[in-house]
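Q: Please design a sequence for this.
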């Protein structure tokens, strides 16, 4: 088998996909990062190697996500791109006519505006946790409801309660108050979905023209209550694509395919999954920027460094 790897390392989840030369997903993994991205990357590689055996030829590797530099240098990625580009590339490949992408991940959210197959505007919220997957996970756990059933509870509501959704602290306090007031759990959950959608659109959608087709991506797209709330607030149909969980990784793999060089991939091989790896940081004092540089080292010494403003350390051991 020949194929292209795409990895999306986020703060909450790590996604790895293998695309064949027709861009079909041949293998995929969606797992928790658990605050240990190196371990998550290595475990993902081990599973891929186990499932594909020795017959896989890696033609290209793309990395994205908040941990893209770590993953990219560790794996020997041919392309390292941010999440905006990766999600847009995957969505356009899946639905060429797409004009708006709603994406909500574990710790951040994004709104991407596309016209004629080109990203013309975007907004990203990495500050407020209200509306992200981790916040919904926390509320599901507090209510004693599996997160997989959260959306079904929201859909069963006949009268959603109005909740404050502009801040995680206020939203949770308001939910507790509504519970103590005797409101039904399903009405509280539906109200939470509506509040989080309002928060998303107020933070990211202000001044932006949201046109159909609208595609909803990311882990939160699996929540039917959030999807319904978006449709009611936007008064537009919102489509959840089949591979919504792994679209960032798919986009990274496609980018590696489109940027394939004549000399083959820089992929460092599956042996990296078994190496003892460590990272360290230091402050570069060569100029007044005093950049904090991150470096990663394996059993045979330094692999790569990154993080400097001027690019001096980018990719250098």
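A: Design:
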């Amino acid at each position: 088998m020949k194929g292209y790897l795409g990895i999306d390392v986020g703060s909450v989840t790590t996604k790895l996909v293998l695309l064949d030369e027709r861009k079909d997903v041949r293998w995929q993994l969606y797992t928790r990062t658990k605050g240990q991205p190196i371990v998550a990357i290595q475990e993902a590689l081990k599973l891929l190697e186990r499932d594909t055996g020795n017959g896989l030829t890696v033609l290209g590797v793309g990395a994205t996500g908040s941990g893209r530099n770590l993953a990219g240098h560790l794996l020997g990625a041919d392309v390292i791109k941010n999440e905006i580009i990766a999600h847009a590339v995957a969505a356009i490949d899946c639905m060429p006519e797409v004009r708006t992408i709603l994406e909500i991940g574990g710790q951040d959210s994004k709104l991407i505006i596309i016209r004629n197959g080109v990203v013309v505007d975007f907004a990203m919220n990495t500050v407020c946790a209200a509306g992200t997957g981790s916040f919904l996970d926390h509320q599901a756990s507090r209510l004693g409801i599996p997160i997989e059933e959260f959306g079904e509870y929201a859909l069963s509501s006949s009268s959603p309660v109005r909740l404050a959704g502009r801040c995680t602290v206020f939203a949770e306090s308001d939910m507790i108050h509504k519970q103590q007031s005797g409101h039904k759990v399903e009405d509280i959950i539906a109200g939470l979905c509506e509040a989080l959608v309002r928060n998303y659109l107020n933070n990211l959608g202000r001044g932006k023209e949201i046109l159909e087709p609208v595609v909803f991506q990311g882990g939160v797209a699996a929540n039917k209550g959030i999807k319904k709330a978006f449709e009611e607030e936007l008064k537009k149909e919102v489509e959840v694509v089949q591979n919504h969980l792994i679209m960032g990784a798919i986009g990274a793999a496609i980018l590696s395919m489109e940027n394939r060089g004549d000399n083959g991939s820089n992929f460092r091989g599956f042996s990296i999954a078994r190496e003892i790896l460590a990272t360290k940081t230091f402050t570069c004092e060569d100029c007044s920027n005093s950049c904090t540089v991150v470096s990663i080292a394996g059993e045979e010494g330094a692999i790569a460094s990154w993080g400097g403003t001027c690019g001096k350390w980018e990719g250098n051991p």
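Q: Thanks. Anything notable?
A: The radius of gyration is 21 Å. The CA atoms of residues 235 and 282 lie 50 Å apart.
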